[in-house]
Amino acid sequence: MGEHVGEDPNAGRPVTVGVDGRPGGVQALSWAAAEARTRGAALRVVHAYQLPIAPAAYPPGDYDVYALDEAAQEVVSGAVAEAAPEVGDLPVVEVTAEGNAVQVLLAESASAALVVVGTRGRGWLARGVLGSCSAGVAARAHCPVVVVRGPGGPPDAPVVVGVDGTDLSDTVLAFAFEHAARHGVGLRAVLCSTTGAGSDAGSEADEPARAVAEALAGWREKYPDVRTDRIVVRGRPVDGLVEESAGARLLVVGARGRHALAGTLLGSVSQGVLREASVPVAVVHPAP
């Protein structure tokens, strides 16, 4: 692994973003830079390469590790240059590493505050396409992961968070409230249920509405400046969360644990929203 800017100048944990030379990586880098700025954190930009998997990505014949590392450095520096308006004067650490991208980013996640990854494309063609790297990192990272599915809503758009009444909800809500408070926006807590539907004005006697109220207990007091709405949606969780998050700043969902097989780890709801959402999606794991 090569670090080409020296040690991270920020004493806290950095925001780490993976780039691969595709437009989705630059979009993820722009999002990560904006997030790092609000956290007062350094930005760590990572590109992984292998010997050789896609020869067309590098000049013919340049398959020795030194040439590949040089080409990888160009991928990183090019992405940083393209995202210059968002990066600005942030402290940036450029990292290249030989190895599988998922494994490299998982290793990075052990010391990161947040890992940010992109998807393979934009528009209708990218809908339903997550990619093995995004899925693998989101499933097994040691810190929250944001998959940038789209640019998100306007600056004042709310954070949408999915709650389900389980112990995981507190970990997910902690991330969502902290993000909303830091960005000065509201929060919309959504519970999808096959029984009942309502909003903040719904009856507390309704069981799903009561479950949302219980999940939020204490959080409104801890974050009094975050306007909070409670939404109960009748129907399939993936559909409800995707619909409610349209135009949001961020959609926050939980994952159930860490496992070698990403598909068995994320769960159907997390996998579904990662494939279908049109805004950045944060995947938060249970507290260790």
What's the gist of this structure?
The protein is an alpha/beta fold and 288 residues long. It contains ten helices and eleven strands. Belongs to the universal stress protein A family.
Beta-strand fraction estimate: 15-25%
CATH architect. name of the largest domain: 3-Layer(aba) Sandwich
What fold name stands as the CATH topology of the largest domain?
Rossmann fold
CATH superfamily of the largest domain: HUPs
Q: Given this structure, which CATH class of the largest domain is correct?
A: Alpha Beta
Gross geometry: elongated
Write the layout of secondary structure elements.
Elements: E1 2-3, E2 15-18, H1 23-39, E3 43-49, H2 65-82, H3 84-87, E4 92-98, H4 101-109, E5 114-118, H5 132-140, E6 145-148, E7 159-162, H6 168-183, E8 187-193, H7 207-216, H8 219-222, E9 228-234, H9 237-245, E10 250-254, H10 262-276, E11 281-284
Parallel strand pairs: 2-3, 2-5, 3-4, 5-6, 7-8, 7-10, 8-9, 10-11
Antiparallel strand pairs: 1-4, 6-11
